[in-house]
Design a protein that fits this description.
The chain is mainly beta. It contains one helix and seven strands; from the N terminus they run H-E-E-E-E-E-E-E.
Amino acid sequence: MRQLLYALSSIFLIGSLHAQSIKGQIKKTDGSVIEAATVSILNADKTTATDKQGNFSFATMAPGTYQLSVSSIGFATRIVEAKVTPNNVTELAITLTDQNRQLGRGSLPPTKERVIF
């Protein structure tokens, strides 16, 4: 009887450890999705990229609070907090804003023009 109880509790514990996850979708401010955005969990050393529909997921997360960094070329990086609770999927909808950077005016040093015949 004791062995059966131990086995059942082990199965329940293993199942509950794998039940928590973080998933979400990354979009632009106009509502269109961002493919190949980088999503990193800063305090868990995990990174993934969004698929063609802008979706990402991290499976088998322990309960706790995580800091996610979301970035993509041409967009401002966002840091988002995600709270994972036991036996739940934490779903996030994240919007990235355009990062309009203009290159400054530069100058080139004068050069001598050579003509070779």
